[in-house]
Amino acid sequence: MNSIDDIERPTKEEQKAAIKSYNALAAALNQVHTEYPEIEIEETKERIKIPVKALQLLVKILKETSQGKPVSIVPIATEITTQAAAELIGCSRPHLVKLLESGEINFTKIGKHRRIKYQDLIEYKRKMKAKQRKLLIEIMKADEESGLYDS
Question: What are the phi and psi torsion angles at 104 (to 5°)?
Answer without folding.
Answer: -70, -30
